[in-house]
Amino acid sequence: MADDNSGERIIAIPIEDEMQTSYLDYSMSVIVNRALPDVRDGLKPVHRRVLIAMNELNLSPERPYRKSAKITGDVNGNYHPHGTTAIYDTLVRMAQNFSLRYPLVDGQGNFGSVDGDAPAAERYTEARLTRVAMEMLEDFEKETVNLRPNYDNTREEPVVLPAKIPNLLVNGTTGIAVGMATNIPPHNMGEVIDATIRIIDEPTIPDEELLTIVKGPDFPTGGIILGRQGIRDCYLTGRGLIRVRARAEIESWKNDRERIIVTEIPYMVNKASLLADMARLVREGVIPGISDLRDESDREGMRMVIEIKKDSPSQVVLNQLYKHTAMQQTFGAINLALVNNRPEILTLKQLLHHFIEHRKDVIVRRTRYDLSQAEKRAHILEGYKIALDNIEELIKLIRAAKDTAEARVGMMARFALTEIQANAILEMRLQRLTGLEREKIESEYREIIQLIEELRAILASEQRVKDIIKAELAEMKQKFGDKRRTEIALAAEDFTAEDLIADEDMIVTISHQGYIKRLTTNTYRSQRRGGRGIIGAGTREADFVQHLFIASTHAYLLIFTDRGRCYWLKVYEIPEGSRTAKGKSIANLVNLAPGEKINTIVPVKEFDDEHFLILVTKKGTIKKTTLSSYGNPRKAGIIAINLRDEDTLIDAALTDGKREILIAKRQGNVIRFNESTVRPMGRTAGGVRGVTLEEDDDVIGMVALEGGEQSTVLAVTQNGFGKRSPVEDYRVTGRGGKGVITIKNTPRNGPLVAIKEVTLEDQLMIITRNGVVIRLRIKEVSELGRNTQGVRMVNVDEGDAVMDVARLMDDDEA
C-alpha cells in the first residue's frame, strides 16, 4: 500500500515469511561468522582475528609480552566489534594448556585454572603468540589466502589462515550454532601428521587403516578413553560417543588402609567442582567408604587424594566415583565444520583431505608470489647489468639531461630499458659501480635465475607440491610432536572376568603328585642363610612340591610335560590357598594324558614373533621356536617338541633371540653358548644337540642369561649347598660340548639340582622334598670361584633333599 502524503512505500508481507527470512539470515550469520570453524585452519572468525591482530602487533615468541587489554582493544576496533569481554574470553582459552592441546597464545599472568578460577582482568595479564601460532600465520604476507573487507571497510582481514598444521584436529574445537553444534576433540600432532602424510602418499587408503595411525583423541588433561567403538564412530561417520575416565591408582597406606590417588581428570572437568561433588555424595551416604578428601595438586601436577575407610573395598569405591561423579564423562564428538561456507559433518579422512587441499592451494599461491618477486628482481638485475656494461655512456647521458624525467626517457630509448629498470638505475648508489659490487650483482642474478627455474618446476608438478607439504609436515612433527597423554583402554563392556582381577605377582607351587595352588608373595618372611624354613605346602605322604615360581595373575602358564606337550593355564584360574593348604589337583585344570607329568612351566604375558621359547631335554637336546607358534591354545594341548629315544623334556625359557644359554648337568658341569647357534624350528621339530653327556649324567636345567651388570650364576645342590659365580667364569664355547665345572659333585654336596641367574637385589625360595620352604636374600650367598664346593644355604633333614629353587625380586620383609 502506498502513502501519497509521505511518498514512502509500505509493502505488506505475511509475518511468517518475514520471520522465516530473517531467522534464516540470522542463522547463516551465526553459522558462518560466529560459531563454526573453517575446515582448513580449524579456527572461528574470532580466533583468527585475535591471531591476526597479535601478528600486526609483532607479538612473536621472541618479542616482549603486551597487555591483553591492548590486544583485545585492537581486535575489537579493527576486526571484531562484539565487545572486549568476548574477545578476552577467546584469548584466555587459547592460552590455557588444559583447554588446548597445543596453545596458540603464550600468556603471562593469571589465565584461569582447571579448578574453574576466573582469569585476572585483561589489564593485568599479558600475552604473545606461541611458536605453533606462528606456524599458523607463516606465509600470510605472501598472498597465500584470500582477504575480505573488515566490518567497516577500513582494512582487510583473511578469510582463512595458511595453517601449516591441521589445527582443527590437533586442538579441536567446540561451538553451538543455530540448529547445529560442533564438538571436535583434540588429537596428538604426531599421529595426525602421520595420517596426513599417509593420505598424500595413498589417496585411496581405506578409512579403517587411518584408525591404526590416529589412535584416538589426545586430551591435554590426559585421562583414559574407554573402548574404541566411540572413536571408530567419530572417525568413520563424523559422530561418536567417547567415554573418558580419570586416571586413578589405588595405593596402600598406613594402618593397612588404602587410598585412591587421582592424577588426571576428563577433558573440561572442573576439579574443584568434582571434589565438591565427591564431598556431597559422602555426606549424603551415596559413597560411604570415603574417610577423607584432599587436593594436593601443585605446580608439578595434579594430585587428588581420596582416603578409604579401613573395611571398605577400594575398587568398589572407585567404581562408585566413576558412576556418580565427573571422574567418568562422555565426550559427544561431532565433526562439524565449514566447507566452502557450508556446514558439513566429516569423517577423519575428509577432514584431513580438506586440509591437504588447502595446503596445496597455499603452496601454489606462495610459489607464484615468490616467482613474481624473483622475476621482478631479475628484471632489475638485468637493468643493472646493462648499466654496468655501458657505464661511461650512461653517465654522460645522465649528466647531459636537464632532469630525472629526461634522463629516464633517454636511458629507455638508448638502452632499451623499461621504466622500472631505468628508475632502479637512477636510484643506484655509486658504490655499486665497483668491481666487487658488479660481481655481487652477477652472482645474485645467477641465483635468481636458478630460483625462478625451481619455482616454475614446482608450479608445473603437483608431486613437487605434495613433497613440499610432506616435508613441512615432517618438520612440524619434529618441532612440536610429543607423546600421547590420553591412554586408550578396553571399554567396560569389553571387560572379562580377568580384567576385574588385580594384576599382581603370585607364588605358584605344584607338587610331585600334581597339586597346584597360588599364594601371595608376602606369605613367606625373609630369613637368614642357613635357617630352618617354614612349612610352605601341606602334602600327602610320599608327595612333595616339585615346582615353585613367581607369575602375574594375568599371565599365561605354558605347561610343558615330560612327553614334550604344552598346555595353557591362566594364573588367576589357579585356586588361591593358604600356606599349608594342599592345593587343587592340576588334572582338574589341565587335560593331561594318563601318566603324563609336568616338568617345566613358563609364564607368558602375550604371544608375538619377537620372542622365542628354548626347550632342553634330559638327554641334552635343545630346540628354539617362535613364541607366536604357541598362541593358539587347545584344550588337549599341543606338541612342543618331538622327543626321541625315550627322552624327556626338562626345562624351557623365554628369550628375545639374543641371549646366551647355560645348560647344567647333574654331575656339576655347565656349557655356555650363543642362542644364535640354534636356528628356529617348527613347533613339532625334534631339536639339535645342546650338550654332550657323560655316562650316568643328564641335564637338570637351563638358563637364558639376561646379562645384568651384577648378575651371577647360582648353583644349588641336593644337600642344600650352593654358591654364586661370575658369569665370566663360564667361557663361551660351541654348542654341543661337554662344558666346565660349576660346582663339585661330592658326597657332602650331592648332585646339582638347580642353576639360576641372580643379582644382589634378588631373593630365593628354596623348597625341599618334604615341603619345607626357606626364603633368603641372594646377597647372603657367597660368591665363590667356579671350581669350588659352595656353602650351606639350607639345613636339610636326613631323608630330605632340595627339589626346586625360585628367584624373586627383593621387597620388604613380611
The total tally of domains equals: 4
Give me the number of helical elements: 17
What is the name of the CATH superfamily of the largest domain? DNA gyrase/topoisomerase IV, subunit A, C-terminal
- CATH topology annotation of the largest domain: Neuraminidase
- Per CATH, which architecture of the largest domain? 6 Propeller
Helix content: 25-40%
Description of the structure:
With 814 residues, this protein is an alpha+beta fold. The chain folds into 4 domains: 43-162, Topoisomerase II, domain 5, CATH 3.90.199; 247-326, 2-Layer Sandwich (Gyrase A, domain 2), CATH 3.30.1360; 360-480, Topoisomerase, domain 3 (Orthogonal Bundle); 497-809, Neuraminidase. 29% of the residues lie in helices and 25% in strands. The strands form 12 sheets. The chain has a 4-stranded mixed beta sheet. A hairpin with a 3-residue loop joins β30 and β31. α12 crosses α17 (462-480) and α14 crosses α15 (419-426). The relative contact order is 0.07. The model is unreliable at 809-814 (pLDDT under 50).
